[in-house]
Amino acid sequence: MIDWDDIRYFLAVARGGSVRAAAEGLGVYHSTVLRRIAQLEERLGAQMFEKLPSGYRLTAAGEEVLELANQMEASSHQLETRVFGRDQSVRGLLRVTLAPTLATHLLMPDLADFACLHPDIEMEIVSSGELANLTNREADVAIRVVYDRKTLPLNLHGLKGPELFGGVYMSCDRLAAWRAGAPDPIRWIVISIHGIPDWASEGEVRTTGVPFRTTDGEAQIVAVRQGLGITTLPCFVGDADPLLVRVPGTDLHMYGTLWLLTQGETRKTKRVRLFTEFVSRRLSAYAPLLAGLPISRD
Amino acid sequence: MIDWDDIRYFLAVARGGSVRAAAEGLGVYHSTVLRRIAQLEERLGAQMFEKLPSGYRLTAAGEEVLELANQMEASSHQLETRVFGRDQSVRGLLRVTLAPTLATHLLMPDLADFACLHPDIEMEIVSSGELANLTNREADVAIRVVYDRKTLPLNLHGLKGPELFGGVYMSCDRLAAWRAGAPDPIRWIVISIHGIPDWASEGEVRTTGVPFRTTDGEAQIVAVRQGLGITTLPCFVGDADPLLVRVPGTDLHMYGTLWLLTQGETRKTKRVRLFTEFVSRRLSAYAPLLAGLPISRD
DNA sequence: CATCGGTGGTGCAAAATCGATCCGGCTGGA
DNA sequence: TCCAGCCGGATCGATTTTGCACCACCGATG
User: Fold this and answer.
1) Could you tell me which of A173, B210, B221, B295 has the fewest CB atoms within 10 Å of its CB?
2) A201 and A137 in contact (C-beta within 8 Å)?
3) What is the pTM of this model?
4) Residue in B125, B251, B231 with CA at minimum distance from that of residue B169
5) CA of B43: which chain A residue's CA is closest?
6) Cβ-contact B233, B162 below 8 angstroms
7) d(CA B131, C1' C22) / Å
8) Sign of dihedral through CA atoms B264, B268, B273, B274?
9) Tell me, in Å, how far CA of A1 is from C1' of C14?
10) Nearest to A280 by CA among A107, A150, A123, A115
């Protein structure tokens, strides 16, 4: 196998016309160039240059090689400029993964703002049900609700956000009807895989024993809006929904803490830094809402 | 300026998935690869790989580099091919790739003859299990069994050879014993990855349901010689082996067609032309044997 | 004819690279 | 649970490559 770096020396000699001129351009001694060219010719089994007293001149074989050598140089230059360019340029793809509830009920306006602010950043929101794997580079940034800090992957870098509380909610109309003595049963609305959280009490209202199960968080919200019963929701969903109220006599409970997670490599890029700083600021502003503190509605 | 040769190391790691695998392929120690990659990353000012416990994985930057690195490799291969293609002297290297079975059981004497005839040609037989890549200049000439003409690479030049038939064989002794009524079971001997070809019947003999599996063609031949059972073999192997006979009642089946493949640039060289013409003649002479026609033995 | 600025080529010591190990961590199968 | 087989990383002589000085040669020039 030839040494690819010898091609660089070959190009320098072909252009400089002499070993010494090439050496000067390459910043090495001419003897080095001499040896590298000799090595290249030996490995290729052909003379690239005629060794004239006036300098090195390309042979016919050398002319043919020159063409491919130029190609290699072009690729090399392109490689360098691309790597160098990507580091500091804002332009490029940024993939963010977060829970669907966070996206639809809280952060989508902020993501939109960020996209407006940086039109060169191509954004991709990976908001499927499952956790995207940052290590596999399925996403560059993850916004996660972490229940136990110890469950954070060690290889990821975390930026802690505000804490997230949840409560028990029901429809305003249903609550009014219940107070008026409506006989219809009030049911627990739960997401199938979760069940009724142990911290959630029924407060003043009483539910029937048969829960109403949904598979999807969105369906759960629609169901509770319809007055089907009571359910647990993050405060930023329940409090922000004008059709819902907290069930009297129930308490808040901490869901977990929001974390902004990034991966070692990608963390250093400008795009990721811009995004994490932006979202971090917005999350701080949301802290009272997330904590379930009273919010003024207009 | 980056060392172009480091790109070769980069490619090896990107393909091998680990520093050690790359080192193996490059024929150097893994510490060398480690240093070259570190040097490349330092000079480019960007991480090309994520250093995971399970190996090296390309970063986003690395993915972009990979594309250009492949371009450089293509240029390099083309360069080597072109230089080789200009070489009209008989003296020099000639690399031939062919299936191990073809080499050991059929063509080795012919290759030896050719080497004797042209002592100036340094020959290298690349007869590993896997197909050598002519475009990568791993070999100059390939002798292949082609099952479907459409699978021939378009960029290669093909010279069609005789057709190749196979049959079902067993040991003479075992057949005699079976005729004498020996109770020992006769088994199918198959190469693990292939299984029993659908065209192969058991003829007059009956086999037990449990096949005997080998991973290697040579082991398969030894097994059938030992009288372990019956197996499918190319006729040039089975008919030429005095210890083996075709299983009565079985038919021949076409394996494929032999092709002499050469690459565009190298086809013009004297060495390659001499070799292809020589082998082509020898193969024609073998046509009856390859087709499974009766051959006189002496 | 001597000189000067250019060329390629060579020998030797310094410097950089590589080979060869050893080590600790991770993983998957026994 | 342990252990074999991977992996990357660190280290230290040995080897290769490079820097550097020096040489012979050629042609132009005064």
Assistant:
1) B210
2) no
3) 0.68
4) B231
5) A80
6) no
7) 37
8) negative
9) 28
10) A107
Are B267 and B87 a contacting pair, CB within 8 Å? no
C-alpha of B280 from chain center: 18
Largest CA distance in chain A: 112
Hey, are the CB atoms on B3 and A1 less than 8 Å from each other? Answer: no
User: B82 and A68: CB-CB below 8 Å?
Assistant: yes
**Residue B7 to residue A79, Cβ atoms within 8 A:** yes
Q: What is the pLDDT along chain B (298 residues), one digit of tens a residue?
A: 899 999 999 999 999 999 999 999 999 999 999 999 999 998 888 889 988 888 999 988 888 899 999 999 999 999 998 898 888 788 888 989 998 889 999 999 999 999 999 998 989 888 766 666 777 777 889 998 888 877 787 778 889 999 999 999 999 998 898 888 877 788 888 886 676 777 767 777 777 767 888 777 888 899 999 888 899 999 999 999 999 999 988 889 998 999 999 887 788 888 999 999 999 999 999 999 999 887 554 5
Residues 6 or more apart whose CB falls under 8 angstroms from that of B124 comprise: B93, B94, B95, B96
- Can you tell me the distance from the alpha carbon of A278 to that of A114, in angstroms, rounded to the nearest whole number? 8
Cβ of residue A65 closer than 8 Å to a chain B Cβ: yes
Residue A296, phi-psi category: left (phi > 0), alpha (psi -120 to 50), beta (remainder): beta
Verify if strand D has an atom below 7 Å from the CB of A9: no
Of the candidates A121, A117, A76, the one whose C-alpha atom is nearest the C-alpha of residue A96 is A121
Q: At what angle do helices B108-117 and B270-291 cross, to 10 degrees?
A: 150
Whether A76 and B78 lie within 8 Å, measured CB to CB: no
Tell if B55 CB is < 7 Å from nucleic strand D.
Answer: yes
Helix (H) or strand (E) run with residue B23 in it: helix B19-26
- B contact residues 32-61, partner A, Cβ 8 Å cutoff: 44-47, 50, 52, 59-61
Q: Which residues of B fall within a CB distance of 8 Å from A65? A: 79, 82-83
Asked if strand D comes closer than 7 Å to B45 Cβ, the answer is: no
